[in-house]
Amino acid sequence: SAYLENHLSWTVQIKRWVSYRMTFAYLNKMKSYRYPVTRLYSTSQTTVDSNEVKTFRTLAHRWWDEQGTYAPLHSMNDLRVPFIRDNLLKTVTDHQPGKPLSGMKILDVGCGGGLLTEPLGRLGASVIGIDPVDENIKTAQHHKSFDPVLAKRIEYRACSLEEIVEETIETFDAIVASEVVEHVLDLETFIQCCCRVLKPGGSLFITTINKTQLSYALGIVFAEQIAGLVPKGTHTWEKFVSPEKLESILESNGLSVLTVAGMLYNPFSGYWHWSENTSLNYAAHAAKSKAEEPPAPTEFFLNRETERLQANDSANPGAHEELKK
Ligand SMILES: C[S@@+](CC[C@H](N)C(=O)[O-])C[C@H]1O[C@@H](n2cnc3c(N)ncnc32)[C@H](O)[C@@H]1O
Q: Which coarse location class describes where this protein primarily resides (predicted)?
């Protein structure tokens, strides 16, 4: 009877285990049915560096203090907003006065508190601002609510660029990544993702910091450690990128670099100006190649005829002569 009792208890345990397994399998299946999202593209690489997230989280309430930590980004709008607007206007034949970017879809990657997203929305564009730092997006949402004009033009999302790439393809007329690429983990993946969500012929705008001895001395030693213009640890020199390196990554992803322009910041006046010198900060504009044009009808028929003659070649020796004509 002891044997029987033991045997029965084992059978009950095994049955329980099998039923747990089945329940889990069923729940897992349900979970996959709950989200019928089609993944268009998936990358195992993340571009988000958790240390950067920590740094930006602690500063999330300071975005809109024009005299504070982000003062240089506020005044950078004097250069970058017209740079983006004027280059985008070159791609259209006419535009609405007062709303020149109306009809354009822009993705502002690493939008922070929305310092650049808002002026782009005011120019009439539909802008999606994304940032991996939740607190930044909350600040951006809150600030947007002060201007009713922006309600329908700007959408903010706390997510990474990789997540956008999983949902959509060739959607945006322009992508803006201003002062962001020097914070990402894997620049090549970041650019690849930008390229995927950009429409053929679309524009990518990047502003960033060059990787030079001068950028180490001024951008890190002076700005962070001596003058306290930027909080310590904001930048890592190893992540800075030269215009040449950036250009080679862009070109290898099917983007042509149209402009690279130096930007210099005067810490005494608090203003930026354009410069030929790109050894510190610079802006780049690149365009994704347009979709291949279908061959012209005559060219198409000639190619078809050549293919037909080549196919007949072995069966019909005279085809060689016909091809030569
Ligand atoms: C210096 S701020 C620039 C903010 C904004 N673009 C501007 O110029 O006002 C850098 C921003 O990039 C975001 N960021 C960091 N890593 C990122 C990544 N891998 N992808 C997208 N954004 C990132 C940060 O959270 C931060 O908001």
A: mitochondrion
